[in-house]
Amino acid sequence: MTGPSNPSLQPLVDGNSIETPPRIPSPEHRFGTLAVHSGAHHDPSTGAVIAPISLSTTYAQTDVGKPVGLYEYTRSANPNRDNFEEAVAALEHARYALAFSSGSATTATILQSLASGSHVVSVSDVYGGTHRYFTKVASAHGVQVTFTPCIELHVENLIRPNETKLIWIESPSNPTLGLVDIRKVATVAHQHGIKVVVDNTFLSPYIQNPLDHGADIVVHSVTKYINGHSDVLMGVAAFNCDELKERLSFLQNAIGAVPSPFDCWLAHRGLKTLHLRAREATKNATTVAQTLEESPLVISVNYPGLKSHPQREIAIKQHRDGMGGGMLSFRIKGGKEAAERFCRSTRIFTLAESLGGVESLVEVPSSMTHAGIPKEQREAAGVFDDLVRMSCGIEDTEDLKVDVLQALEKSAKPDDAAAITNGA
Ligand SMILES: *Cc1c(COP(=O)(O)O)cnc(C)c1O
What we know:
By secondary structure, this protein is of the alpha/beta class. It folds into two domains: 79-271, Type I PLP-dependent aspartate aminotransferase-like (Major domain) (Aspartate Aminotransferase, domain 2); 276-421, Aspartate Aminotransferase, domain 1 (Alpha-Beta Complex), CATH 3.90.1150. Helices cover 37% and strands 15% of the residues. It contains 15 helices and 14 strands. The chain has a seven-stranded mixed sheet with strand order 3-9-8-7-6-4-5, sandwiched between helices. A five-stranded mixed sheet has the order 10-11-14-13-12. The protein is globular. Bound molecules: pyridoxal-5'-phosphate. Residues 102-104, 127, 129-130, 170, 174, 199, 201-202, 221, 223-224, 233, 235 line the site of pyridoxal-5'-phosphate (PLP). Pyridoxal-5'-phosphate binds at residues 102-104, 127, 129-130, 170, 174, 199, 201-202, 221, 223-224, 233, 235.
């Protein structure tokens, strides 16, 4: 949450007749300024501009029950975690943020906060690990989840009076990049006293701030864009409500799925360049998506930054400057074989799961990230065997474009060839 007090960040005392400029950062500052300065307190003992990594698990006390400063034991609170949480809260326009050892631990802790007998409504194409937790773990402690492919249309009918406590949204969805109108769902949810969670991992706080559109909790796998360098596993939840703060920080401490001080320090360092990385990734993904869309070797492209995206209006309303983010997927001509060959043929895009790092990645969801979902269910959600998912990094645009074109040439089968294969 809010970090240790730093004199340079104290609110201005009223009654000061001299007009003083606002301290840095304050909520009126813009994203880049907040990213660089929020939670980035100078070390009061040495003046170090970058906070030291506080590895100590315990903190000395001057008398029984009287710690020297704010800290007693690192699971309950740690300076590096506080700094990181303060920064995420600022970027998500939240009063509070809590960091966890992974995105999955964040999801688990939020689900754990529900009483036995509670009901959750979720979008169908949630992250695989979230789906696994909902169907295989939450049910064991008496929490039921109903999935729906069109949450805006069906949410009202799926709400069970007195039982439904949470609505879970992922926008854009994975791997088909479908969007949800958060405000629309939140309006219905709030009429029934239900809280709305948005997994904002795919866009990062630079492109979308779900709390501004009515969500109650925003969650991230920090592992992806916020850290951005594919070297930290971590999660975070941000929200405004005091009651949630009390309940979730109690669980954060009780369950103990907290990140290490080093990971918090690294993720905080990564977060400082989020705006630069998100802009470059969007620029690259936009060019790659347009290149794919123009190719006769491609069936269709899913990218919220394209005019052809069926929910482009939502992107314009919900995303910063209508940006599409760094993630896209497309169907290649030539089926599963072509999709797999494409991933083996790219030279800059690395064949690997995960996303949101500075390096570009490519994968085939039906055989990798989404292999656990039965084929029929998968295809109903648009995850065909010929679907390729790409995470665009921050390399040079032209190099990525050339890489995609040469890989397409090597792997896709033009229409007549595909027809012959299908007829065989
Ligand atoms: C990766 C991911 C998660 C899970 O996060 P971990 O840090 O891997 O536990 C949750 N949601 C989305 C959308 C993700 O991409």
